Amino acid sequence: MNLADLNKVALAMVTPGKGVLAADESSGTIKKRFDAISVESTEETRRDYREMLFRSQEAMSKYVSGVILYDETIWQNAKDDTPLVKLIEQSGAIPGIKVDEGTQGLPGCPGELITAGLDKLAERLKKYYERGARFAKWRAVIDIGQNIPSMTAIHVNAHALARYAALCQQAQIVPIVEPEVLMDGDHDIDRCFEVTQRVLNKTFQELRVQRVALEGMILKPNMAIAGKKSAKPSPVEEVAEKTIRLLKSCVPAAVPGIAFLSGGQSDEDATAHLNAMNRIGGLPWRLTFSYGRALQAAPQKAWSGKAENVAAGQRAFTHRARMNALASKGEWEAGLEKKVA
Ligand code: 5MM
Predict the structure, then answer these.
(1) Which of 21, 180, 238, 312 is 20 to 30 A distant from 270 in Cα terms?
(2) φ, ψ for residue 187 (rounded to 5)?
């Protein structure tokens, strides 16, 4: 492992004014997204959609530091036969790859999940590196409910995240460590804070035990935020203040950067929260976005599977990427939302 090079890639992923496009929806998830815009999900439509994003020259060259791809996409070529990975590289962004294989029920823990994909991971990482991937992603899913999460679910998911991260670094690939505490429930922000704190503390404990070099990784956490069904939604300033307090209490300063997931927040909320955190400032790590839904909902709608809408889809993507890029520097204003380029 060359730690200086890993650190260089990690820092590039969180370049101020840029962030990560999470375009690694598995086949099931992208089908759900396409169903919502009445587009059939085929190998070709998935390729066309992602090619539209990766050919958004302004967004990709100015606001996107890296793209997380799904296995199918990393091997796909654009319509003119250029590998999609090359399109990303030519734009100046770094290609990355989701290497987890989704979640399964956790034995003995009803309602809880463990992420699969460690088998043969070392071999798969070698192939992804040869194809151009310089970072990877693994998502652990923790749900909040009555009597959950259990210590077991937190422990085994943290252990798997650390196993994955160590294997990535051995393959000279920067691991994005994503322990996602879902915002699906009716819990309030303080319950989210408390659960996320336990999850992050356990994750960093396991990362240390398994000798993961913190300088060569990126953390992708949820924010401290009330569940979607909560009767007490949290104001922007409270989300920002509590998320920063939470992260300061568990994330070592050696971690180069934190790239948030959007987790089902509205496009504008995800931007406003990131912006408010960066306005607080004085942080040991860079804070940016690694959004899936909050970057892609608008372009998906504008595109709707029609070739004649590609330019509109690219405009919508560029706008969201620009808004979040500004938020990564604390320079976003709500008034800018109206001015779609
Ligand atoms: C883009 O979605 C990613 C893959 O999800 P599935 O494995 O469920 O298909 C997902 O891991 C994503 O990267 C994170 O959840 C962040 O995305 P959001 O939409 O929460 O910003």
Answers:
(1) 312
(2) -70, 160
Q: Where are the beta strands (DSSP E) in the chain?
A: 19-22, 64-69, 94-98, 103-105, 113-115, 135-142, 174-181, 218-219, 257-260, 286-291
Specify the CATH number for 3-338; select among 3.30.360.10, 3.40.190.10, 3.20.20.70, 2.30.40.10: 3.20.20.70
Gap between the Cα atoms of 18 and 286, Å rounded: 11
Please, which pLDDT band fits residue 6 given cuts at 50, 70 and 90?
very high
Helices 151-170, 189-209: crossing angle, 10 deg rounding: 50
The answer, yes or no, to whether residue 137 has pLDDT greater than 80, is: yes
Q: Which of these is catalytic: 178, 202, 206, 242?
A: 178
Alpha carbon distance 289, 277 (integer Å): 12
String of DSSP letters for 278-306: HHH---SSEEEEEESHHHHHHHHHHHTT-
- The β-bridge relationship of strands 218-219 and 174-181 is parallel
Reported pTM: 0.98
- CA 30–ligand 1 middle distance (angstroms): 10
Q: Ligand 1, from 21, 29, 141: best to mutate by most atoms within 8 Å of Cβ?
A: 29
Q: Give the pairing of strands 94-98 and 64-69.
A: parallel
pLDDT tens digits, 261-272:
999 999 999 999
Q: Which two tokens stand for residue 314?
A: 């690219």
Q: Which residues, in sequence order, are bridge partners of residue 94?
A: 66
Share of the chain above pLDDT 70, in %: 99
**pLDDT of 2 above 90:** yes
The total number of residues written for the chain in this structure: 341
Q: Is 306 a catalytic residue?
A: no
